[in-house]
Give the backbone structure.
Amino acid sequence: MIWLGIETSNAPLSVAVVKDGQVLAEIVQNIKQTHSVTVMPTIEELLKKVNIRSEEIDAIAVAEGPGSYTGLRIGVTIAKTLAWTLKIPVVGVSSLKVLAANGQLFNGIICPLFDARRQNVYAAAYKGLQLEKIIEEHHGSIDELLLRLDQTKEPILFVGLDVENFKDKIIEQLGDRAYFANSSHHLPRASKLIALAEDQPMPTIEDVHTFVPKYHRIAQAEAEWIKEQKKGNQ
Amino acid sequence: MGELIMKDIYILAIETSCDETAAAIIRNGSEIVSNVVASQIESQKRFGGVVPEIASRHHVEQITLVIEEALKIANMQPNDLTAVAVTEGPGLVGALLIGINAAKAFAFVHNLPIIGVHHIAGHIYANALVQPMEFPLLALVVSGGHTELVLMKEHGSFEVIGETRDDAAGEAYDKVARVLNMPYPGGPHIDRLAHEAKEAVEFPRAWLEDSYDFSFSGLKSAVINYKHNMDQRGEEIIPEQVAKGFQDSVVEVLTTKTVRAAREYNVKQVIAAGGVSANKGLRTSLEQAFNREGISFIVPPLKLCTDNAAMIGAAATYMYEAGVRGNLAMNGVPGKELINWIK
């Protein structure tokens, strides 16, 4: 079984090929280049390196969100186009869970987060090797997240490049219960993404067409439109 | 001596620059084998215009379905194709990226060359699907985002001799439609109303003297002021007459300048392109004018005027023949300029 994994949900990029549970190759990069330019050449380079033709791939794993809207769409568009034309399934994995997998060995709660601006975050919380979900993937305020984490009375590991933006606040709320992953753990790895995808139910190839990112937020214009409609109905 | 057998060129084209997700297959640059368009108008109507984030979300939902449909209708397999073409720009960047990345992924799997096409070149080449282009040629490109006069001396050669200094014609149409409480997109409504009126409210024409440039913001303001003044006096406007007054002004300026440029550059053919070339008033006026001038005039059928992928495939065929190739690092270029592809 050959997997191709694609992770483009935020600024870093990761692509990996896993064959029968073995990671053959993985690229992780964190350079300021747009995914639109880099993803396809990186996939081409990686497949060449491991000497696998695209037709040999059996399934594709992609980070489905949350994250940067454009980043997610580039990864998902490439994943679903490859999957559709190769007639193979595509499996979506939470991009927060992919990041959490970097802290899988931590004895406590793992909290991956992305900055969503204006003191808001995309975040979730998991626990243990199995990454049992403690807090659902969601979009919300950093303050509320920290309050919820505080109630757990457990040590908490924060993972992700954006953690730095909230470090003071985290320490203020959680004190020495807060742990911070080192920088090598802040980048999502497509090999972890594939490992998580392997644990999920395999969708059918018919599901490829309807596969879309999980934005965890409706578009602003749509939110405003819904508000207007509600007003009109009152 | 053996006969030289020309291999047919089949281009799979993809277009997602704004609010239509489209794919088409074109044979030899002149024949539409399939042409699929998934429109977002129903969704975007809620917002009175195109919201970029919404457009991008819809493109992701539709992209593989639309490409699959184009192949199905054509009854073709990927290995029957010669190349993949996609709109590279101009357009909404987030929207462009969906088509571009789908095109690159598809081209990669099937080992096909990829060609990035300029959206306006596409609109112009929609006419190659109607009849062969003859040079020198003058193209009047009018859409929601563009109002340009483009001179072409041969395939792949573009010289913009005039363009709008402010609003695009289609943009002015949409804004005036809003003043008249017409739903988005406003162009077809104004066109219909204008044809229902006998008399027109008199609005100014922006001639900008010797230049081939255009300006529609003054006209738009004149319509808004007219409505405002009537409201203040407590008088009802007659939407048909306002629409006719507005459309008469737009059509007269576009026609007069196009005729003048066609004469000056001694062109063999004039073509209309872009969404606003679907406008009945404009089509009729240009047809009559070039009949009088004795110059061949072509305008694509309605469904090739609005955004579609067939036109991208038509332009791409000529680019393919000229040796133009993109690569897997192709990116969306929202402000892409119309430059020559021949050296």
Notes: Chain A has seven helices and ten strands. Residues 97-185 of chain A form a domain with the Nucleotidyltransferase; domain 5 fold (CATH 3.30.420.40). Residues 14 and 28 of chain A are 4 Å apart (CA to CA).
